[in-house]
Structures are given as C-alpha cells and as structure tokens.
Amino acid sequence: MKNGILVTGGAGFIGSNLVKALNRRGCENIMVVDHLDDPAKQCNLKRIRFEEYLDKTALRARLREGRMPKVSGIFHLGACSSTMETNEAYLEDNNYRYTRDLCEWSSSIGARFVYASSAATYGDGAKGYSDEDPVTATLEPLNLYGRSKHRFDLWALETAAMRNIAGLKYFNVYGPGEDHKGEMRSLVNKAYAQILREGEITLFKSYRADCRDGEQDRDFIHVDDAVAMTLFFYDHPNISGLFNCGTGEARTWIDLAKALFAAMNMTPRIKFIDMPTPIRNKYQYHTQADMAKARRIGYTASFLSIEEGVRRYVREYLTKQAAH
Predict the structure, then answer these.
(1) Residue 231: how many CB atoms within 10 A of its CB?
(2) I need a surface site. Which of 8, 40, 277, 286 has the fewest CB within 10 A?
(3) pLDDT single digits (tens) 91-149
C-alpha cells in the first residue's frame, strides 16, 4: 500500500462512489476501510476495485500500534451519520476522536487529508450557510451528530495541520449506493419503493406559519457531483480549509417528489403526514449551500438539476435494483 490511497467509509455511499471514480482514473492501489454491518455495503464493495479491505477497528488498532503503511492521500468519509443518534460518547469517539487520530497521522506522514463534514453543522440556518471561517466559529448544530462534526471542524481550523486538510460540508446527497443507510437514505431512495407499492409519496407537514406543507427546502446534490468536488480538493493540495459541497440552489420537497414521479412516468400523488414529535424542534426548514468560497478558489464545475439527477438515479440504478 505504499503511496496508495486510504478511503474510510469506502463501502458506504459517497465512499464507494469515490473509489469507483478513482478506479476510472486507473487507480486500484486503494485501502478501503469500513464496517460491513449491512449486506448492501458488501454489494457496494463488489462494484469497486481495491488492493486491501480493512475493518475500521483493525485500522484504529494499527494506528495505535504504528503499523500503518505510508499513503499519499486519505479520504475520511466514514462516520456515524445518523441525526437521531443519542449516544454522545459514541459520537465523540467515532466522529471526533477517530477523525482526529487519522488527521494527526496523515500530517505526520505528509499525506493529503480530505474529510467529510456536514451541512448539519449549520443548525437551524439562522446564521446562514456560509463556509467562511468566522461564521464556522459561531455555528450551533441542532443534534449530536452535527455537534460531533462541528467539533472536529473547529479543531481543524485551529491547528496548523489545516494547511494540508480540506473538509467538505456535504448537503443533501442522493444517488446509487445508499441502500444501507436506513432512515438516513435520501427521499428518492425511500420514496421510490413506496411509489411502486402505493402509488403515492408521503411528505412531512410544516409546523411554521411562513412555510406551507412540502415547501420546506434543501440543497440536493447528486453523488456524482459530490464526488467530483471531493476529488477536486485531492487534486489541489495547495487549497485547504472548510468548503460547502452543495449546488447552491435550494429546492422544495415537492419539487423533488415531482421529479421522482416524472422519472417514473407517473402522475404525482403526494400525501402529507405529521412530523414525528422528537424532531419537530430540530428540523431544518431550509438549507442552501453558499458556494462563493468554492467558486473563489477555482471550482467551476456545474451541477445536475434535481430533475436530471433523479432521472439518472431512477433509470440507471433504482429501476434495475427493483427488477432483481
């Protein structure tokens, strides 16, 4: 593995798509790290090429014992991404301590470190969605997951090692390879099966007077676009810092539902249901990545619209999965 690439979360959603993109570049000298707790992750592994697989517990043991081979780059995408997780000690260890251990090791060997942060760090959005450093320092995430990601962001900004670190604040990513994520799957993935069964999609009601049902909005980004941006920061090691990874455009849940029905050649049928009580006070009604910083440092790529992204996801992946 000398001078290869390490990808944590490599059997997961963004990680497996990232490895696939590296494979298209001709790179197979890859160590994939994950925890195979779901058959869908094993399916993801079968779609990618790599030199070695390592469970994350084994990786952490190797790090403690100083037995890791030298690599040229680390993509740290593995984490507990559940916004409903209530075990603060687990998130502290898995999302903060683990990330810091990897980052400190990467700094010691001079490897590029690109890691996954999250739009959950922005909390209710009252302070906007700017990824500029002064704003980051003031953010107040709504849940423990967001706090765990935010804590590492703050550490990274404060340490000199940030000179070789790029953190990506992923917004609402959707696309192939997310089947293992349970309730954290995108609405497209969850609703596709529901539409096949029932002919309709369910969306949460709004509990704010200034927002009608289904008009809560998100910055939806296709996984191919998220991977392209992630690779950009690996390819430009002179650029470091925290950056939003979204499209810069907010679209409503109704827009997303209509795009899904259109991709399935069906007439939209939308039913609004009560939002679970535990999340009503922690629900984000609006997210929209401010992409000015990324554009300023030279990221010029365009992004798929949700209409095109959902169409591609449905016709090139979900339809084939449903046929098996």
Answers:
(1) 16
(2) 277
(3) 998 999 999 999 999 999 999 999 999 999 999 888 999 999 999 989 999 899 999 99
CATH fold, domain 177-218+249-286+304-323, is: UDP-galactose 4-epimerase; domain 1 (3.90.25)
How many Å separate Cα 119 from the centre of its chain?
9
> Residue 324 is which amino acid?
H
The catalytic site residues sit at 145, 181
CA distance 201 to 271: 6
The structure's pTM equals 0.94
Quickly name the fold that domain 4-173+220-248 has: Rossmann fold (3.40.50)
Residue 103: phi, psi to the nearest 5? -65, -40
